[in-house]
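step: validate -> pass
step: tokenize input -> pass
step: predict -> running
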Amino acid sequence: MEDTRNDQVVLTVTEVASQLRIGRAAAYALVHSGQLKAVRVNRRILVPKAALDDFLQAAGRVS
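step: predict -> pass
step: emit ->
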């Protein structure tokens, strides 16, 4: 089975936490503080991949 996660347009907060290598609580704190843009779809909080890229660029982690 092929891994298609690289093609995802949105990520869950848990997936973002894993990619950033931080805890889930820290990832939720970034979302709730507005530092990391996210959208709520029903009960789920989803982070657009572009928002994660923007966050990393602003943090100076990606050139």
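step: describe -> The first strand starts at residue 10 and ends at 12.
step: cleanup -> pass
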